[in-house]
Structure formats: C-alpha cells, structure tokens
Amino acid sequence: MIIHHEAVKQEASDFSWDVSFLRLRDMQFIKGNGNWRMEQQLTVSHVLIVVKSGQGRLTLDHDEYQLRPDTVYVCAPGETYGIEAEKASQLKLFLFKFDVFQVTEQGYERVQGIKKERLFPLKGEIQISPAGQLVSLCDAIYDHWRSEDGLERFYSQFAFQELLYYIMKNRRLQAKESRTSLELAKEYMERYFNENLTIEQLARIANISPKYFVDLFKKTYGISAIDYLTELRINKAKQLMAQSDAKLRDIAHQVGYNDEFYFSRKFKKKVGVTPTVYMKSRRRKIAAYKSPITGQLLALKIIPYAAPLHPKWTAYYYKMYRADISVPLSAYRKNQHWESNIETLLHARPDMVISTDELEEREKEMLEQVAPVFYVPWLEKNWREQLLLTAEFLGETREAEHWLEIYERKVKFARDQLKREVGDDTFLIVRISKQNLYVHCNRSMSEVFYHDLQMVPAYGGDRFIYDQQITLDQLAQIDADRLLLLVRQEEETLAFWKALQYSMPWQELKAVRNNKVYLIPSDPWVEYSAYAHDRIIDESLRLFSGDCPK
After folding, report:
1. Helix pair 275-283, 260-271: axis angle to 10 deg
2. Half-sphere exposure of 84 (CA within 13 A, CB side)
3. pLDDT tens string 470-496
4. Measuring CA to CA, which residue among 279, 299, 272 is closest to residue 376?
5. How does DSSP assign 131-152, residue by residue?
6. Exposed e or buried b per residue across 84-103, where buried means at least 16 C-beta atoms within 10 angstroms of its C-beta
7. What is the pLDDT of residue 316?
8. What does the angle CA 411 – CA 417 – CA 421 come to, to the nearest 5 degrees?
C-alpha cells in the first residue's frame, strides 16, 4: 500500500500537533508462534502496531496488510483490528493504545476520528525510512511502562511522544507514479492472468532471480505467486459465471486454462463446490439481509448475491466468501447501518430478499420496496425448520433434506468421539463483558452443544437459554470440569480478562487448575444457522481432541 506525498502532507498540515496532547493508555509486547492469532476486535482508542520481528497478517477493518518490521500500522477509534502470525514464524510486536486530545475553547477535546478537520494524520500502513531506531524506541517505552517507579512510568509518556515524532519525521513519502519492480510483476499478473505465465517470466519483469522472486513475493504479499495467480483466475471465473449465458468451457479458456476438466478440479479445490453448482447458485440474485440467512443459504449450496460482511461481526463469511458475494452489506455492530443497507439493495436490485422476521415495521416497509421478501420465523421455529422453510421457498427442499441427513451422521460420529475424549466431564460456558461474568447459553449452544452433542451442562438452571450474571464465588460453587469462555472483543473487557487470569480466585477454579479452559470466538458459536452449527461440531472436535486447550 503506497502513501502518496500530497495526501500525507495535507493530512499532517490539517492536524495541529502544537496544540495537541497524546496520552498512552496501554501497551503490550506480544509474542506469537505460527498458531497464534488475535481475534478481530473493536477499539475505542487509537492503536499503533510496530513489528519487532517475524511475519504475520493484519486486518484493519476491511483492509489487509502483510506485517513488516520497517512499517507502522494505525487503527482509528471505532474501527476493528485483528492479527494472525504466519506459519513457522515467531511474530514479535508492540501494540500501543493511545488517546489524542486537542485544545478547544472548552478545554481539551478527544479526537475520535469523526470530524474530518481533526482526523489524526497517522492511519493505515505507514512505511518508515530509515527505520533503524523504530524498535529501540519501542523497547525503551516498554521498559519505562513496566517500571515499578511512578516517575519512570511518567517518562514512558514522553518517550511515546518521541516515537510519534520519529514516525512523522521519517514516514516514507512516495510519489504516486513510483513503483517497485515487484509491484510491476504483480500488476502484470493482474492484467495478463489469462496468459501462460511462468515464474521465470515474472522474475524477469521484477529484474531478480526466479528463486528470489518466489521468496520475496511470498514474504511481501503473504501468498505464493502461483497461488495468487490461481486466485486471480478463479475470481475472474466467478464473475463470468454470474452471466446467464456463460459456458464452462469458454470460462476456463478466458481465465487461462486450456483444459476445462483441470479447471473444474482447481475450482472445486479452491471454492469447495464444483463450477456447475456454483453457477447454479449465482443465477438467482438472492439477498441475505441478516447473517444467519447467509448460513442457511450456504447449507443449500447457494452463495448470496448480497449479504452482511465484516471481518469482526461476520468473520468466517468475510474470510471465505467476500470475493463471491457481489454486494457486501454493512455488518458493523449488528444492523447499525440498516438504512444504508436498504439503500445499497435498492441500487443492486436483487431478485428476492430473505430475512429473519424480527424487524421493526418501518424497516420492513423500506425493505419490501427492494424486492419480494421472504421472512423466516425467528422465534417460532427452530433452525432445522427454518432451513426447510427457506429451502421450500427457493425450491431446494431435497437439498435441505440431504444436508440434514449428512448433519445427523456427522453429529453421531462427533458425539461418540467426544464421549471418548471428555467422558462425563461437566461444561460451563461463561460470557465475559466489560467487568462482568455471565453463565451463558444461547440457542445454538443449547441445541447443538448440549442437545445434539450431549455435552453435560454444569449449570442446572430451569431454562435452556440463559445469560445470568455471576460472581467468582458462584463460579467456584458450580465447579465445572471444563470452561468455555466467550470474551467480548473490546478494550475494557480484554483488560478485565487479562487481570482476571492472575487473580487467585480464578486460578483456584478446578477447570483452570486442570488446564481445561477454552477460549471460543463468537463466530460460529453465537450464530443460529445450519452452516454455523455444522462448524460448531467441527470446533468442538478440534477443541477437545486433547491438544487444543487455551
């Protein structure tokens, strides 16, 4: 990603550094091996990330970056970020959380990144040159921040200002027309992916040896050159398949494959379904207005034309299907932007819309102006009945029945496997939000984890669905053999969770002493859909196979 000179210059001049106050509120030094990842989380402060060593991937809202040591990354308040280490890489990075204040007539006002004239000038990916002092400055801040001496901790605030000054003075300002040789090769692939490209040919364009090109491309972009070329071809093929008169043989030739059968094998390996099934699913422009509807449609082998997508709130669908879903809808904070979503659908003109029925009347009235709407009964029907009703509406009843047959066989296998692994151990799911603990069980957990898989609940409440606040003492009294933790991914909750782990009452819990505490993400555990429930089965097998406790 290139930072253009004029844009950065303008942003820097718009921000008044001399009447600003920056306060470091927290910092961490993180080490992660090839299996480590930080879930996508919402931030209420500015976040600055500096890599000390290793490789990984960073997602800032909808943008993805390959983490590099000579670069800093900034996330603004109200946005989300998540990090994943590369395989076989020891990723080490500094993560700073800070607030920005500017002097106003009323005093100091916190910069939230909402008012354009007060946008903090550092955002996204910023290359630093020279970057020699970048890590040493971070090391110094960390040493002062951890000190037991209050004066030293005070100095860490000053040292952090020095780091920001260094970044601003040494950010790399690249002209728009500037291109590296590797970027030229990548752009050539994007333009001529349908031709018979070779590594040797691309290496010549980059003016480096083929072996160095292979290594450098993977290191820079986080994907091999061959895999990237395949991705370009498959994504273009998906676009062509949406056309009503598309023929598989012609599509294969247009994206660079002479053999349509070889193309079909590559496509199924990459996408998970055959080109024929995929083409069938793309012929109807079906809008999934709610995330669970996406899960029901995917169980029917239908990829929606429009659906909510976000790297935090619909993490799996964003990762796996954002190249397939033609019209992404906002999933930010669960339906916060419903009016803009309806406006998007009005322009996209889908053939039909499928939604859950728990909408306000005004929202329903506006949605029904888009296209015919099928409302899935949300509370009156269970997920199996919802799947069958959706399938009946779409003429896919046989597909739904077939999917449910496979699901039941999978459940029986998983139930037997888990019984051998966990025996009669009792389970408790705990939700952590802000500074509170809750014994928790939603519809998916009740019907899939406890009913289908027959895991033994430690909490004997009188309801199947519950979210009841508890204390640590009450948690100890429940005395569960295993704990599943659903930790809200935002700053106050994560700070509380970090402190909780070091408290004696927590460490004395039986599940903690026996190393049987498992962190579970909201996706798929909170989504009530067929596809999410299938993944809960997979996640349960993975968690309790004996080598996955967190």
Report:
1. 70
2. 13
3. 999 999 999 999 999 999 998 899 999
4. 299
5. -TTHHHHHHHHHHHHH-SSHHH
6. bbbeebebbbbbbbbbbebe
7. 92
8. 135
Q: Mean pLDDT over residues 19-44, rounded?
A: 87
Rounded Cα–Cα distance for residues 148 and 130 (Å): 33
Q: pLDDT exceeding 70 applies to what percent of the chain?
A: 90
Q: Comparing C-alpha atoms, which of 174, 167, 193 is closest to residue 70? A: 167
Amino acid at 116: K
Q: How far is CA 402 from CA 45, 244, 398, 415, 447, in A?
A: 48, 27, 6, 20, 20
Q: Which residues pair with residue 28 across a beta bridge?
A: 95
The residues near 95 (Cβ < 8 Å, ≥ 6 apart) are 27, 28, 29, 30, 47, 48, 49
Across 366-387, average pLDDT = 96
Nearest one of 167, 185, 47, 72 to 125, comparing CA atoms: 72
**Is the predicted pLDDT of residue 95 greater than 70, yes or no?**
yes
The per-residue pLDDT for 365 is: 95
On the question of a cis peptide bond just before residue 372, with omega within 30 degrees of 0, the verdict is no
Between CA 37 and CA 519 the distance in angstroms is 12
DSSP assignment string, 173-199: -B-TT---HHHHHHHHHHHSTTS---H
CA 263/CA 270 separation, integer angstroms: 11
pLDDT for the residue 364? 95
Cβ atoms of 86 and 109 within 8 Å: the answer is no
pLDDT higher than threshold 60 for residue 309: yes
Alpha carbon distance 331, 279 (integer Å): 26
Name the pairing type of β-strands 91-104 and 107-110.
Answer: antiparallel
Question: How confident is the model at residue 466, as a pLDDT?
Answer: 94
Cα angle 139-140-141, degrees, rounded to a multiple of 5? 95
> Are 287 and 327 within 8 A, CB to CB?
yes
- Taking only the tens place, the pLDDT of each residue in 71-87 is 899 999 989 999 988 87
Where residue 112 falls among pLDDT bands split at 50, 70, 90? low
What are residue 246's phi and psi, to 5 degrees?
-70, 135
**The amino acid at 119:** L
Q: How many CB atoms lie within 10 A of CB 83?
A: 24
Q: What is the pLDDT of residues 174-211, one digit of tens each?
A: 433 345 788 889 889 988 999 989 999 999 998 889 99
Report the C-alpha gap between 193 and 188 in whole angstroms.
Answer: 8
**b/e string for 123-134 if b means 16 or more Cβ within 10 A?**
bebbbbeebeeb
213 within 8 A of 225, measured Cβ to Cβ: yes
CA distance 273 to 138: 47
Give the integer Cα–Cα distance in Å for 24 and 161: 9
What is the spatial distance between Cα 388 and Cα 530, in angstroms, rounded to a whole number?
10
